[in-house]
Amino acid sequence: MKTVKIGLAGLGRLGLIHADNIQGMKHVELTAISNLDETVNKQVQNKYQVPYAYTTYEEMIKNQELDAVCIVTPSGFHPRHIQLALEHNLHVFCEKPLGLEVEGIKRTCEVIEKSDKVFHLGFMRRYDKDYLYVKEMIDRGDIGEISIIRSYGIDPIGGLESFVNFAKKSPSGGIYLDMSVHDIDVIRWFSNSEVKKVWATGSSKAFPELNDLNEVEIGTAVMQLENNITAFLVAGRTASHGYHVETEVIGTKGMVRIAATPDKNKVTVFNDQGVVRPTSQSFPERFREAYVDELKDFVRCIREQTKPEVTALDGLRSTEVAIACQHSFEQEKLVEINYEG
To answer: Domain GFO/IDH/MocA-like oxidoreductase spans what residues (predicted)?
Structure first.
């Protein structure tokens, strides 16, 4: 079987996770990396015996040995990096979001649509076994017609100070675009419908200085979908117990919850604190297998010359909804979404 050779752009926390996952796959090689920090490049190159290392993405994609790229660069660069990769005849896996502004994403979608190369977007919850199990239940009609979807995504509060320092240097696009795109994608995926109205609010009580950065530490949104499903989401950075991702679907025949508590494992501890269930502490821990499986699907699509289920349009729609939530929060009003193209 021919080895699929991948170039990885970006070696932050998630980039390093992808590096480890790529190197652990059969008949797949981490052939090149690109990252501004040469010290990090050398560390990763030595750890995984990566043949090539670059300090610019533009140089890396000129490497003619590559079959594909995995893009984990800052979100604002994603549209340009996707387009450059496709121009160099490379298959593309890109982390969410597809970009930070709608017009640039639309142009990128047009380029992707015209290309015969595989484009895969990193909505890893679609590859999580629990989410897949519930999706199958919904599609079979096991819980009847959906009326309400509720989805939480809350990071550990221990990382909040680090985020504040990051936000002072580089805009995240707001909590809805930075965090809620996963929840929005799940809502669209489960409901098979688009969001038409949003009302969003938020606050910053642990770190009020986020208000001056047009950021919040916890945000909420109520959404009305085109098929009259109501969706609620919470995005936050203040979970004291760990990494909390929870989704609930209420239907006419029943309801399901995914991770009502963010259990680390099946262990229950009995001690002077009472009865305690250890919890997941980070997204790499909670979705470890999903991150592996999404890359396996990317490689499968390359080998079989097929398209993945998740599309660039999914990225566009989730971004449009996230931006509408941000506008609703900033303007303190209900926002209706008008999709074009």
So the answer is: 131-257
